[in-house]
Specification:
Organism: Amycolatopsis nalaikhensis
Keywords: Disulfide bond, Electron transport, Redox-active center, Transport
Pfam families: Thioredoxin (PF00085)
InterPro entries: Thioredoxin, Thioredoxin-like_sf, Thioredoxin_CS, Thioredoxin_domain
Helix content: 25-40%
Strand content: 15-25%
Distance between the termini: 28 Å
Largest sheet: 5 strands, mixed
Number of strands: 5
Oligomer: single chain
Protein name: Thioredoxin
């Protein structure tokens, strides 16, 4: 069973170098919609262990990465494939809608 783990500005290279696609949630402690998305991401990490990694990055504590991906609203989820962002989801959505966006992006040809 896989779990959602944190990355930082210093460790973000693990996302870019991953052999499997990585969904990264940009979040903050003061963000209620981020708390709503958290159980959805936990479920996705468990259900897709081995085929999708799920990571979180605290935007307030890691401004460099947040700026470099032009994150302006929270939560923002970015799907990375082969180190490249291939899908961005802004806002809290039900699990089915997030899965639909992920599946569509993962089925597209590699960047």
């Amino acid at each position: 069973m896989s779990e959602v783990t944190a990355v930082t500005d210093a460790t973000f290279a693990e996302v870019l170098g991953s052999d499997v696609p990585v969904l990264v949630e940009f979040w903050a402690t003061w963000c209620p919609p981020c708390r709503m998305v958290s159980p959805v991401l936990d479920a996705l990490a468990a259900e897709r262990a081995g085929t999708l990694a799920v990571r979180k990055i605290n935007s307030d504590e890691n401004p460099e990465t947040t700026r470099s991906y032009q994150v302006m609203s929270l939560p923002t989820m970015i799907l990375f494939r082969h180190g490249e962002p291939v899908e961005t989801i802004v806002g809290a959505f039900p699990k089915a809608r997030i899965e639909e966006r992920l599946d569509r992006a993962l089925m597209a040809p590699s960047p």
